Every structure is written in structure tokens, then in C-alpha cells.
Amino acid sequence: MVGSVAHMATVRDNAAEHRYEILDGDQLAGFADYTIDGDVIAFPHTETLPGHEGKGLARQLVEFALADAHDRQLDVLPSCWFVRKVIAEHSDEYVVGGTDGLWASPK
Predict the structure, then answer these.
(1) Number of structural domains, the chain?
(2) Which of 46, 56, 79, 81 meets the CB 3.0–4.6 Å disulfide criterion with 32?
(3) What is the pTM of this model?
(4) What confidence tens digit (pLDDT) does each residue in 15-62 have?
């Protein structure tokens, strides 16, 4: 899945590297690592690369990754704090569970 977002940014699923990537123009600006086990996608780490902070790219990246997981009907294990934050902000789209909210399922 590939999508375009603001700031001439493009988000893509780099399945070979097990991560979603966001490109600002032609430069890699950030990534969200993932693993898939059955019908669960885990996001352990999201990173915005130096020089690309403060542009909203990490949010766009995670929103794209979550939309892709939703389209694929995958449950989400958001180990990364930023992914948990974005899910909390989209509580109308996810059912959050676990004693500490460490998984989310698309509604």
C-alpha cells in the first residue's frame, strides 16, 4: 500500500524491511517498524529522522500504518508509545483492550 500525504511526503509499506516508511520528497524521513504474527501486527518502534521533526510526518506515518492494518483487519499491538497515542486519539475507530490498553482491534 502506498499513499501520499502533505509536505510532498509519500508513505509506503516496505514489507522486505518490515516497516512503513515516510519519504519527504525523495528522502527517507521516518519509519514505523512492525512484525505480523497471524492476525496481529505489532509496532515496537517509530522514528522520525533528524531534520524531519516537527512537520507532522510521524503522525501521518502512523495514521497510514493504522489505516492499512484496519483495512487488513489486523489487531494492533502498539508497543510504541506514539502508536498508542494515535490510537487513543482515534478511539472511535478502535476497540482498545488489555489491562494496559496494549492492543486495539478495528471497529
Answers:
(1) 1
(2) 46
(3) 0.83
(4) 999 999 999 999 999 999 999 999 899 999 999 999 999 999 999 999
Q: Residue 102 burial by CB count (10 A; 0-12/13-18/19+): exposed, middle or buried?
A: middle
Contact 42, 79 (CB under 8 A): yes
CATH of the domain at 51: 3.40.630.30
Q: Round to whole Å and give the CA distance between 50 and 18.
A: 21
Query: What was the pLDDT predicted at 4?
Result: 44
Looking at the chain, the whole-number percentage of residues with pLDDT higher than 90 is 56
Full residue range of the structural domain in which residue 74 is found:
2-106
Cα–Cα distance measured from residue 90 to residue 102, given in angstroms and rounded to the nearest whole number:
15
Q: What is the DSSP string of the chain?
A: -EEEETTTEEEEEEGGGTEEEEEETTEEEEEEEEEEETTEEEEEEEEEPTT-TTSSHHHHHHHHHHHHHHHTT-EEE--SHHHHHHHHHTTTTEEEESTT--EEEE-
